[in-house]
Amino acid sequence: MGIFVVIGGDAAGMSAASKAKRDDPELEVVVFEKGEWVSYGACGLPYYIKGEIQSLEDLVSITPEEFRKERDIDLRTGHEVTGIDPDDRAVTVERDGDEIRQPYDHLLIATGAKSVVPSIDGIDLEGVYTLGSMTDGKELRDFVARSREESPTEQPDRGPACHFLESCEGAVAVVGGGYIGVEMAEALAANDFEVHLFQRGRHVLKGFSEATSDTIAEHLREQDVALYLDTEVEALEGDDDVEAVRTADEQIEVEMVLLGTGVSPRTELAEDAGVELGPTGAIATDEYRETNRPDVYAAGDCAEAEHVVTGEPAYVPLALTANRHGRAVGQTVAGTLTEGGGIAGTAAVKAFEIEAARTGVIDHETAREAGFDPVTETIEAKSRAGYYPGGGTVGVTLTVDRDTGRVIGGCLVSEYGEGAVHRSHALVGAVTEGVTVSELSNYDLAYAPPFNTTWDPILTAAKVLGGKL
Ligand SMILES: Cc1cc2nc3c(=O)[nH]c(=O)nc-3n(C[C@H](O)[C@H](O)[C@H](O)COP(=O)(O)OP(=O)(O)OC[C@H]3O[C@@H](n4cnc5c(N)ncnc54)[C@H](O)[C@@H]3O)c2cc1C
């Protein structure tokens, strides 16, 4: 019995609400969501913009009506929580200018993250977008649809930038080469835009191995993406609408700019309530996702979590963590103390016809800070038996600790459909359980010619690195 209040109606919030109500039907569960969408898959937005997914509704896994009627959850959309009073155990909520006060016995902060917007000249011009919400996704799809309606023949002069593609709709800029930037480059190129991708550092997909980043960069160029590495966007030019992107070296005419410059945890409510943040700037929690304020929990993109390799707090805002930690909080609130588990920083991405995954600690600086003596090896191997039709190449990068032989991280890359991402699951197990490279090389992995070679590329990489050690 009691009242469980949840702030935020997406992955973490609705997982918690559903699990708590399922385990304890007597519990009163109230969810406040400031927007109109709940339980949506923001991860699908690039594919919606690309045109592979027809409607925004397709991205919703459970509708508000289903939560209310079938799960008996008091879900209130259009309600923004504006304050938390942990001493009085109540939240203040605004709806259409009215204010209500809602008491709670347990509270989950699941407010997610917001897109980082760099403070450069011209950032407020029309035609500059972020992609952090369903509304952003809708606006971007509308932009694509509007541009497609104007056929290139009706607009003969697209300017000098449009030189890559015969049927080019116009030039667009993607700022940031993280996974959202890369996925959006694909989505926009598929709609015949000439895509200019700007990345501040030397590598796209920071956090993946350098070998993987290089493979993906090469592939982006093959796909006619104009890639500007080590290039900072200094300003956006235009009067009302954005017209160009300016770097230190040049000015590129574009009709749209997508910012994929990262996210930051939405922590204002928590901070105002005296909830402590951790070293990453996200909300600090214990292994049960409880904050420093009793019975106040935080999960998902607003919170940090302990890294399974370093043991230190890490901020890796991804969907499974939000679902897993939200569910664990729901179970705890319903009476069964449940740990959400740590994070390995596992991530996957598709870039045109390439797929890649990473897990654990790959870069040597982070590894050394965590007390390891890292050694890294990259191998390439066939994705299927040589005699089996089709197939391609899988690149495997492994990082291990020289002293103990422990596998601390890895990265895989292959042609799309050749299994880099599915193979990475074995590596996640190894990294999470702290196995040695020699133990990994003896993993009894599945084998059949259509899927791999007898020695799967992961085993080959482990053998090579074991030999090197
Ligand atoms: C374009 C895109 C692609 C992605 N692709 C992937 C992917 O491929 N794989 C992956 O693992 N992850 C991906 N992610 C990340 C994933 O979507 C997030 O990790 C996940 O949605 C986090 O869930 P959450 O519940 O913590 O936060 P959110 O999904 O951000 O939900 C938080 C909710 O809280 C609400 N809220 C905030 N403040 C208040 C308030 N004061 N009152 C009431 N409501 C409030 C917000 O409106 C929001 O609905 C992607 C994200 C984006 C944007």
SSE blueprint:
Layout: E1 3-7, H1 11-23, E2 28-33, H2 45-50, H3 64-69, E3 74-77, E4 80-85, E5 90-95, E6 98-103, E7 106-109, E8 113-115, E9 128-130, H4 134-149, E10 170-175, H5 179-189, E11 193-198, H6 210-222, E12 226-228, E13 235-237, E14 244-246, E15 251-253, E16 256-259, E17 263-265, H7 268-272, E18 296-298, E19 305-306, E20 313-314, H8 319-333, E21 347-351, E22 354-360, H9 364-369, E23 374-382, E24 393-401, E25 407-415, H10 420-433, H11 437-441, H12 457-468
Parallel strand pairs: 1-2, 1-7, 2-3, 7-18, 9-16, 10-11, 10-16, 11-12
Antiparallel strand pairs: 4-5, 5-6, 8-17, 13-14, 14-15, 19-20, 21-22, 22-25, 23-24, 24-25
Helix pairs in contact: 1-8
Residues 7-13, 32-35, 42-43, 45-46, 80-81, 110-113, 131-132, 180, 266, 269, 300-301, 317-320, 322 line the site of flavin-adenine dinucleotide.
Task: Please give a structural write-up.
There is one protein chain. The protein contains 12 helices and 25 strands. With 469 residues, it is of the alpha/beta class. The strands form 7 sheets. Strands 3-2-1-7-18 form a 5-stranded parallel sheet. The protein has a 5-stranded parallel sheet with strand order 9-16-10-11-12, covered by helices on one side. A 5-stranded antiparallel sheet has the order 21-22-25-24-23, with helices on both faces. Bound molecules: flavin-adenine dinucleotide. The site of flavin-adenine dinucleotide has 33 residues, from helix 1, strand 2, helix 2, strand 4 and helix 8.
